[in-house]
């Protein structure tokens, strides 16, 4: 199983430059790839270019970027531009994001998200591999000047329609905050969708929160990330089955994040994360591999571990 690193994931109150520190540690320790997620704070391609300038060899993946706010050519151009200035392979990850981000931050309608994901993924299959001299998009008078960015196309998926899109167009499908049991179920759906499409299945990756020997600050950071999933369909049922029904009920009733954090037992972090001493974490990684995961993308807690150095050092190699 491959192990990569997520330098920028969901929004939190960590230092603005923490993603650069995480990426620097990942490169120093020999991890093969770093993910630069996009949100209200960071533009994924700008962050990827900054990481490329500050590191020596690590491959870069920008995103998931929200397909409702970026057009296919803009995404392909961004990846090719970063590859040109860094000399590194640059991949792209796509996602539908949320109404809170798409409409609340960007002021764009989040309509037909699954259809837009499919349209964007289909277009990028060609745009990410276009050669210099070809039109920048089919039918355009403008010639492409950049070389292909060279990285994989990833589709973030959880629902059946998104899984079908990943199976048909992606090199890799991405899950986020999932248990080994969910990995097994979602992998089965991916294999079935790929067989229906007559295509070799994409590899399966997951962003997994990680904290080796966590101090209280690191554990709280992981738990705050879990809180945001308590009302999401598919996730809430998983937490209910794991014995956290009271926290789920409070979330559905509109409780604030601090109240939910107090209501959520520590065990929730170990349900969907790599949290504990090194032996515990490695055993949990084995469980993900046995469930069918091809790649764990570590999302290191940094609140009590600047740059995720303790966790990334423990799990390197």
TrEMBL record:
UniProt GO MF annotations? oxidoreductase activity
Gene3D superfamilies xrefs: Luciferase-like domain (3.20.20.30)
Which top-rank group of organisms is this from?
Bacteria
> What top-tier enzyme class does this entry carry?
oxidoreductase
Q: Which UniProt keywords apply?
A: Oxidoreductase
- Kindly give the SUPFAM superfamilies that the UniProt entry links to this protein: Bacterial luciferase-like
Enzyme nomenclature, EC number: 1.-.-.-
Report TM segments: none
The residue ranges of the Luciferase-like domain are 8-294
Q: Kindly provide the name given to this protein in its UniProt entry.
A: LLM class F420-dependent oxidoreductase
């Amino acid at each position: 199983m491959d192990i990569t690193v997520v330098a920028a994931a969901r929004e939190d109150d960590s230092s603005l430059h923490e993603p650069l520190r995480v990426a620097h540690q990942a490169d120093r320790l020999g991890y093969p790839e770093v993910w630069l997620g996009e949100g209200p704070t960071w533009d994924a391609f700008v962050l990827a270019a900054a990481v490329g300038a500050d590191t020596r060899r690590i491959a870069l993946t920008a995103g998931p970027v929200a397909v409702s706010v970026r057009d296919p050519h803009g995404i392909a151009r961004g990846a090719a531009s970063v590859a040109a200035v860094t000399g590194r392979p640059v991949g792209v990850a796509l996602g539908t994001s949320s109404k809170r981000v798409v409409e609340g931050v960007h002021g764009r309608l989040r309509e037909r998200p699954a259809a837009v994901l499919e349209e964007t993924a289909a277009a990028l299959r060609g745009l990410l591999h276009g050669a210099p001299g070809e039109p920048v998009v089919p039918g355009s008078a403008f010639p492409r000047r950049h070389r292909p960015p060279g990285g994989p196309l990833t589709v973030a998926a959880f629902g059946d329609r998104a899984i079908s899109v990943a199976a048909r167009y992606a090199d890799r499908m991405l899950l986020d905050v999932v248990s080994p049991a969910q990995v097994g179920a979602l992998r089965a759906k991916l294999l079935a969708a790929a067989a229906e499409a007559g295509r070799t299945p994409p590899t399966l990756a997951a962003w997994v929160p990680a904290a080796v020997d966590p101090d209280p600050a690191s554990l709280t950071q992981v738990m705050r990330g879990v809180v945001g999933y308590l009302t999401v369909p598919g996730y809430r049922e998983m937490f209910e089955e794991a014995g956290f029904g009271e926290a789920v009920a409070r979330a559905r009733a509109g409780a604030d994040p601090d109240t939910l954090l107090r209501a959520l037992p520590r065990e929730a972090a170990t349900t969907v994360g790599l949290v504990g001493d090194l032996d515990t974490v490695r055993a949990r990684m084995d469980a993900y591999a046995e469930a069918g995961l091809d790649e764990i993308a570590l999302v290191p807690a940094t609140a009590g571990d600047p740059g995720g150095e303790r966790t990334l050092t423990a799990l390197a190699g």
